[in-house]
Amino acid sequence: MRIVRYDHAGHVRSGVLIGDAVHERSGGPIVAALREVTLLAPCDPRVVVCAGKNYGEPDGTGRPKLFLKAVNAVTGPGSAVRFPPDLRRLEYEGELAVVIGRTAHEVPERSYRDYILGYTCANDITADDWRADGQWVRAKSTDAFCPLGPWIETDVDDPAALHIRTTVNGRLVQDSPTKDMIFGVGELLAYVTRWITLQPGDVLLTGSPAGVGPLSPGDVVDVDIEGIGTLTNSIV
Amino acid sequence: MRIVRYDHAGHVRSGVLIGDAVHERSGGPIVAALREVTLLAPCDPRVVVCAGKNYGEPDGTGRPKLFLKAVNAVTGPGSAVRFPPDLRRLEYEGELAVVIGRTAHEVPERSYRDYILGYTCANDITADDWRADGQWVRAKSTDAFCPLGPWIETDVDDPAALHIRTTVNGRLVQDSPTKDMIFGVGELLAYVTRWITLQPGDVLLTGSPAGVGPLSPGDVVDVDIEGIGTLTNSIV
Asked: Could you tell me which residue ranges the Rv2993c-like N-terminal domain spans (chains A, B) (predicted)?
């Protein structure tokens, strides 16, 4: 099932997408055609917690590297991300995003599926120069630096059996299976919820594979995850 | 005016405290006596952005040092903060907290007051060992690491004319005027909102003065700010 959040004639609602029709709920009446609504980020998280460096060589600590994105950064599919003034290098990072379905505290790794509503695509937009601040607040949480979407796909049996492809202006720049994550979704959720209680709608970003690179104003970035969909955003 | 958020017989509401009476609103009817309600964090932020190292010697960068606290950490006056297992050193940090009153984007420093609802006390609880993670997610955002309260005081003319006193089990450990901040409230709000749009109810922590130190289970910490009130929490 594809869960969407959308603006239709000025009203923000959630619904279910079947083909090109937005339904009020699963089995419910059609509200509008997909082309008649503006899709928004498919959830409205209060916490967005992210794993850094979760593909490639492990760093030897045996622990995920976590950081936060503040929710002012959350934006939807199709939206424009402003290239900040006074910045040299802005980067895309295509990622699998986990959307929490029920209160998650000290989740046992083996039962992680019980706490997940579904999965969506994320672009962990990063102002590379500003990592030098130490804590990555400007670097990761500037307005619109967290596009999510286009919808939440609830029918994902195994989040390690997906494939992420990111393109910039149609050129393939990231192309990796999610089985290459160092810490899988279950391990990440168990780790994070030892300290941080997540609530329904909260989001866990699972890290970006090889191929991260720069963006310029005018670029269009697609983050496509097999079996989920494609998140498209432009840089302005 | 003192704005409170409280639980009364299982219902969470906001109101105004006058003497020992909780009113529905300013000039409105009395709902309950203060002793009949449980005070909660006086606002329900979506973003909590914090200035680190904002008292003492400037670091020479000319910029505030920012970090985030995730909102799972927000808790109210009177609540207990759990000393995490596997941690050696937990610290209190008494701070002045700014509560945003209207959407704040690219706020001019001189007009910062227009964007502020009022002020409250914060305890920026920190797991010192876990700063070594790099990004301070566990160190700063573990559940209940952000006590706020006891209420929002809206009648503060000059946030640089206040005085912070923190006690642990009645022993004075922090005792500083807010005029000693390196970056004042107006500078901080102007800086943060160049990148991060804050919404009503969001919170800006302004840094902790000298005297930060360790906590043990059983300790009771008071953060008292002249003209605002006292935030009391226990460590368990």
From this structure: 1-42
